[in-house]
Amino acid sequence: MKRGKKQWGTRERSGMSFLIVITFFAVFGLIILTEVFMIDERTHSGMLAMRAGGGGGASLGGRMGDSMPDYDNVKDDYDLLDASILSDNKLGFVQLRDNKLKIQEAAGADGQRLAGMLLNGGGGGGGAGAFGVNVPLIPWGQVLPDKVEETLPHFPFGTRPIDGAWQVVNGTRFKFFVYSAYFDRREGARLVRVVGATKTRGPERVWCRFWYGPSAGNGTDAGSSTARAKYSSATVMARVKIIRENWNLKYSACFILCPVRTPPLSVPHFVSVVSRLRAPPGNLLTLRNTDQDADFAASRARNSSAKKGSPVGHPPPSGDNIPDRIAVCVKPLHFNYDQALYLMEYLEFYALLGVSHFTFYNHTLGPHASCVLENYQKGLVPGNLTAHDLEALTPAEAANNATPRVLRTQYQRPTVSILPWNLRMRSQKEIRTEGLFAALNDCLYRTMYRYKYLALVDLDEFIVPRYSDTLNELIGSLNQRFRNRNTGAYSFQNAFYYLQFADDSLASSGIEGGNDQLARVRANLVTQRKTRR
């Protein structure tokens, strides 16, 4: 009896182990299938979160879902006349009848999902017959007719245009905010690109309302009643492009893309993103247009003999004409960041390496760190080196008691920009780290054409060249090394230097010719103390 009971127990344990393994793989497979085929919750019936079938699916190369950040198909942003974009099955279309709008889903009579361009046929043929109507259909990116535009709300004269501040998109079921707007003319496209944040899966449909009229530079206040009478508008259906952050949170950074087609549209002065055409807009963004940038106009005037009365438009510099300078973007400062000494070390370290400009986003900042940034922003820090290192003397120089030589540097006082970042989404619960992808993308477009290189580095990250004195020299050597490749960016492998590691003994040994206060400061600098792993 005992022997039989022992054998039964062994078989039972073996069977239980096998069952556990099968259950694990079954649960794992179920999770994978749920991620790939899960249908998003939507207010509009029949809309899928994944792009499948038709031209939209083909543009993704058959990729199931979005497991990687959505940067691999950025060319779609510029192929505005490509049928695969206008036939995007996520966008739907607008039906116009008796000058009244009706938004419909792009679903055919046979259950196949069709899109606006495929239905935009003449007469009784084409896709329009599938709906039993012969009325104009307006696909994504095309302008609403003038008769409809006249019935929409006028310019929001009580709202002041803003650049670089979060504003709400009214009338959406889920949170939807916009921050800044840029006119993107790369690759020959004409596109208004709005930086925003909204629902990760199944973002709600929105529209771009372009506002034309007195510009901010002609002395007319955009909020005055006189300016209101001079304003006209145009409206196009927008495309929301989510920037996937791989954290599977409810909200993510996004681009709202609005084509500026010519004819009949010219580049607007302002833009509003709305979810309901009949409702007054809840936001008003100043469009940053590099073609009308005063900085580039001044540079163009210095480098050319333009005649008086020449056109105001001036394209931004390109290629070798872009200044060989480096800018740094830092993700939003949060948790009341107040490490003043670390912040000064970060700024001065990169300034010594040739960085010209820093862009910060202030979510919550402590008083000491805020004071440091304000002094840099106002130019109240010295414009030259106040602390210096000395070159080592040769034995012969030391024997003759020669005076140590000051180590030459490329230091120039950097400029600093601080932008507000009052995004009303819970960090790490609704969106990743205060929506840092929205901040970094805004910084990218904000500094474009002004600096040849842009570095995205956190406050605890230091890029240390081994064989170069500045980052410009480092990048130049890398460009020479990979000159036959189409290199768009460089990623540097990191190494951790933990604070609990022992300090470098030279950091507290003082500086020859220096004073005790300078020695104490150096002894507290992370880049001086933590040099070994």
TrEMBL record:
Residues 296-320 are annotated as: Disordered. Its EC number is 2.4.1.-. GO terms for cellular component: membrane. GO terms for molecular function: glycosyltransferase activity. It comes from the Eukaryota. It is found in: Membrane. The chain crosses the membrane at residues 16-39. Signal peptide: none annotated. Residues 297-310 have a biased composition (Low complexity). Its main location: membrane. Keywords: Glycosyltransferase, Membrane, Transferase, Transmembrane, Transmembrane helix. It is a single-pass membrane protein. Belongs to the glycosyltransferase 92 family. This is Glycosyltransferase family 92 protein. It comes from Drosophila melanogaster (Fruit fly).
